[in-house]
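[audit] Reproducing an earlier prediction to check determinism. Same input, same settings, fresh worker. If the tokens differ from the archived copy the diff job will pick it up downstream; this log only records the rerun itself.
[audit] input (195 residues):
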Amino acid sequence: MNKGMIRTLSALLALALPLAVTAEGEIYKVVDKDGNVTFTDQRPSDASQPMDLPPLSVIESGVEVPEPAAEAEAGEAAEVREPTPRELRRQFGDFRITQPAQEETFWGTANTVVVAWGSSQPALPDMSARLYLDGTPQDVPASGNLSLTLDRGEHTVYAELLDARKRRIVTTETVTFFVHQHSVNFNRPAASPRT
């Protein structure tokens, strides 16, 4: 090696040596003219000396910290999955009109009929139903009953069970029933023959 190269390497080593001496994690205490104390990891001046800090106390808690991936999986498992229409059809397959009975006739009820519907399984909170009376739809709860005042004659009723997205899950059988009133002419005595 020639003398020029040695001088260059020596100069580079002299410049790099202070950087290598500064160890990672050194803390310096700086007090300003007003007495405010600041702690920093930047050397405030060349004459500054790092503080001698006592070693940290570490206490093991025994509690395992879950990995981020495990937390995400646990969050997904805790998230409630919406049941599919097929699963809902199996669960609520017995959804039906429970009142009136097929071909039931109502006499003397002041034209009032109670229509009831439901399933043996309790409905999910976000489910609803649509009741069709003589073809006219009416949104109703997923299970319950409704008191109706109807005209005399033949009527039909059926219901559809709807999921949270208002998709039809189950449709009941159509029930036909009759509303009649007593007449003043009903059971009237026959006219007697004249003599």
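[audit] rerun output stored. Observation attached for the diff report: The domain at 85-180 is CATH 2.60.40.10 (Immunoglobulin-like).
[audit] end
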